[in-house]
Amino acid sequence: MDAEIAVDLGAIVRNAESLAALVAPARLTAVVKANAYGHGLVPVARALAPHSARLCVYELDEALALRAAGITSAIHVMGPVAAAELAAAQTAGVQLTLWDRGGYADDVAAIARRRGDRVALHAKIDTGVVRLGLDVAEAPEALARYAQTPEYELIGAFTHLAAAEEIDSTFTREQLARFSSATHALDAHVERHVAATAAAILWPETRLDAVRCGIGLYGIWPSEQSEALMRERGLALEPALQWRTRIVALHDVEAGATVGYGRTWYAARPSRIATLPIGYAEGLPRSAGNSAQALVRATRVPVVGRICMDMAFLDVTTVRDVAVGDAVTLIGRDGDEQITADDLGEACGTIGYEIVARLPAHVPRTYTNATT
Ligand SMILES: *Cc1c(COP(=O)(O)O)cnc(C)c1O
To answer: Which residue, 302, 226, 228, is CA-closest to 265?
Structure first.
């Protein structure tokens, strides 16, 4: 086993409880798309199910995996579902997203009619991300039509925010106003939901009936401002994931020696170089080369040279008694030192979201503190 991902489900549950308390009386729904942000879909969803009003995924396959695992919670598929998969979606009893007025909306109705059943729907409105959703101008008419279509059970209306990570953006208010104007004629029982984690924290007026939190559940902050505000209020989120590997070889090199492909790093002094058995195929971005850090024996050390497909290097010259087999922490704690997913993301020119979402599914995960 070259690497191991350890996930503390207790931390995820506590993060869910903190966020649920923050947003109440709005309901917390839990976003577990992208393999639960790399934390592992089924175990995470099982832990979150009792603590959230609904699980949100992007693809139908994710919803079907949850059903196959015996999870009976409400599940909202937020992304597109191919027409050929609609029957499977309805058999699984999942909630679908509708944002069009044409063929797809008709396909959904046709499947429901054939099965003699109604399909639960959330209408998506595009208020400024320009990704998926009805235009604001056409939304009232489309929503009225959805509400009157006997095969549809319109249970929700939602939008997604483009700039909720910063407090000084007026665009969030603008999007909220567009959403209100698009949905004002809807029945009060249709659930309105707009906020993801950042907005749920920074913009109380966006909480409406429910929020869709992803990143915060995993103890990763959506932005520095959200972290600062929560800390001010004494609310903490706990990182749930630790990513570790081991040293598989050590080399003592002379000053002037170079390490790795392209010879991008050279030893300014006699150095001890550790070889790691993971590379970009295991989720350590190539951009981590000569930039990221890792922890060995509670000491912070630099990643040196280019990341290979399946290997990488550390300069462990400063680590006393370093040995082959020593644990290497890429995300997590070792002694008093800690590296967060965001620290690694920043070193790689990206964000914590991308680092965890790209941790490959084939890396074994171990789970602690499961309560169910
Ligand atoms: C991913 C996603 C979320 C969750 O966002 P976080 O920033 O991770 O909380 C919410 N809503 C939609 C539509 C999403 O795609």
So the answer is: 302
